[in-house]
Amino acid sequence: MSQTKQRPVPVSSRPERAALPAPGPSSFFFNGHVPRRRALVVAVSALFGFALTVVWSAEFVDRTIGDNVADTLLGHTAKGTPIAGVLAGLAFALATGVAGTFTACNIAVFSALAPLTGGPSASRRGRMAAALRPLSRLALGALVVSAAYGMVAAVAGTGMPQFDQSQGGSGLSGRLVQAMVVYGLIGLLMTYLGLAALGMVRDPLAKVSQRFPNAPMLFMGGLIGGFLVGRPFPLFRQLFRDAAESHNPLYGAAVFGLQSVGNLTVMAVVFLLITGFFGDRLHRWMTRRPSRASALTAAAFIAAGVFMLLYWDVRILARRDLIWYPMAPWAM
């Protein structure tokens, strides 16, 4: 009796996808697809955030870039020039907001681009029109928080911690302590959101986003508005004092809101350009392997979060000679 010859089962040279963690429930930050090398994404992103703190020069960014951009937009020297009237204050707020785009207290805004990328394929005009919807929610969240803080500043006046420049034995003023606390907490939260994008921790906004799909973008906008709470940028302190001395809550809300709009302007333009010219290609690239979107979002948030934590809570201590921290010669 002849035996039937069975065909050998082909063995793929590629690693089995089944060995990867099974996709979990999706949310705004986590799309349910786990990247293959989560630990590598975390390590590279954190290393990038750390390296940025080593080479970052506040002198160059705040003065060379920030002051020159503000002077160009206003048509006169911004720093030290009195803000004469409401209209001048509104113009100063918007111009210095744009000028502060690349400062250490605002650069993390660009991490908001990652979860917005990879929209559905459409015409260039359609993609850019669709991109305005999440951007408007981001701006709304930032406006609510920043305007509320502007009203508080106008009512409370110059007795707030951001006006305290007296230094104790540690060499830290009340203004710097407030910046360390605010940006440290935001850095922790952004790092956590990056881990959530990888499925390593639970997305804190998962249930809320199921009921209110716009909530995550409003929340991220609120984080951006919260940057003003700890901002030590000299031009912003000048605006802060003008709003506080006015004792006009509406004026405080308006100028602080415009400052946040200025902070978002460059990021919004970059996002619209990416969406218009590369959105379709980017969408196809992410659709072929959905875990790429998770990795991209995680990398942006972790890098920004680690940068804020190390820059504002560790490097500041080194600048006061309380600890040692590696810094490039031009960043000293």
- Strand portion, in percent? under 5%
- Shape by Cα distribution: globular
Counted beta strands: 0
- Mean pLDDT metric: 84
Structural class assignment: mainly alpha
Gyration radius over CA: 23 Å
Helix content: 55-70%
Low-confidence stretches: 1-6, 9-24
SSE run: HHHHHHHHHH
**SS element count, helices:** 10
Question: For the terminal residues, how far apart are their CA atoms?
Answer: 87 Å
Quaternary structure classification: single chain
**What is the makeup of the main sheet?**
none
Structural summary, described in words:
The chain is 63% helix and 0% strand. The protein has helices spanning 38-55, 58-74, 86-99, 124-156, 174-197, 206-211, 215-230, 234-246, 249-288, 291-319. α3 runs antiparallel to α8, α5 (174-197) runs antiparallel to α7 (215-230) and α8 crosses α9 (249-288). The longest helix has 40 residues, at 249-288. The relative contact order is 0.21.
Give the SSE map.
Blueprint: H1 38-55, H2 58-74, H3 86-99, H4 124-156, H5 174-197, H6 206-211, H7 215-230, H8 234-246, H9 249-288, H10 291-319
Helix pairs in contact: 1-10, 2-3, 3-8, 3-9, 4-7, 4-8, 4-9, 5-7, 5-10, 8-9
Briefly summarize what is shown.
The protein has 332 residues and is mainly α.
Main attributes?
63% helix, 10 helices, 0% strand, globular, mainly alpha
